[in-house]
């Protein structure tokens, strides 16, 4: 005879995941959501992107953070 495993941990994890996903959906901007949808739809083309080159290009951009206290 065995005892059934509890599902409380799984349920807590699922509800936490739903809250995080809902928060992300609410805070994501329309243009970013649109970009992510295009990447998803065009996944075969997106898989051909050289990520190392994209990261290098991004690292050359001007820093956008400014100190709050000068």
From TrEMBL:
It comes from the Eukaryota. PANTHER family: OS05G0311600 PROTEIN (PTHR45749:SF37), PTHR45749. This is Zinc finger MYM-type protein 1-like. The lineage of its organism: Eukaryota, Metazoa, Ecdysozoa, Arthropoda, Hexapoda.
């Amino acid at each position: 005879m065995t005892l059934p495993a509890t599902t409380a941990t799984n349920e807590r994890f699922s509800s936490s995941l739903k809250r995080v996903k809902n928060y992300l959906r609410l805070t994501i901007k329309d243009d970013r959501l649109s970009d992510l949808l295009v990447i998803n739809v065009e996944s075969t083309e997106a898989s051909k992107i050289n990520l190392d080159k994209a990261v290098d290009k991004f690292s050359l951009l001007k820093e956008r953070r400014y100190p709050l206290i000068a």
